[in-house]
Design brief:
Distance between the termini: 18 Å
CATH architecture: Alpha-Beta Barrel
Strand order of the largest sheet: 1-3-6-7
CATH class: Alpha Beta
Order of helices and strands: EHHEHEEEEEH
Number of strands: 7
Number of helices: 4
Shape: globular
Strand content: 25-35%
Structural class: alpha+beta
CATH topology: ADP-ribosylation fold
Oligomer: single chain
CATH superfamily: Protein of unknown function DUF952
């Protein structure tokens, strides 16, 4: 599974329109940004620290067409691999959504531990880890 962060208002508008999702990054950069489940917390902290009303889209990558895994340079000189979709996202590949909320320290994250949706994200991460182990 892959994750994409979007504002709740933008997601509602996309759903109402029914067309594949094509955010401004398609025009500006040529792709849609995705994070692996274990990259979401850092992505939220790095790019969405002051944002409110965010939704995490959980996307099934199996049906994605032009999906690439690209090395992204970090300010510290390291690189990290992120998934990028080089075409609009078909809405039917969005498996579920998870609300992003601020914690007591003001940092953004998925719903608190114990919430059914946080268990879903933890389960998705576990499946990804097991899939990686099985493919080695």
């Amino acid at each position: 599974m892959l994750c994409h962060i979007i504002s709740a208002d933008e997601w509602a508008a996309v759903q109402a329109g029914g067309a594949p999702y094509a955010p401004p990054s398609i025009e500006a950069e040529g792709f849609i940004h995705f994070s692996a489940p274990d990259q979401v917390a850092a992505t939220l902290d790095r790019h969405y620290r002051d944002a409110t009303d965010l939704v995490l889209l959980i996307v099934d990558p199996a049906g994605l067409g032009d999906l690439r895994y690209d090395d992204v340079d970090r300010p510290d000189g390291s690189t990290e691999v992120f998934a990028h979709l080089y075409e609009p996202l078909p809405l039917e590949l969005v498996v579920t959504t998870i609300a992003v909320e601020a914690g007591p320290d003001g940092r953004r994250g998925v719903r608190p531990a114990g919430h059914p949706q946080s268990a879903l994200l933890e389960g998705l991460l576990a499946v990804l880890v097991l899939d990686d182990l099985a493919s080695d």
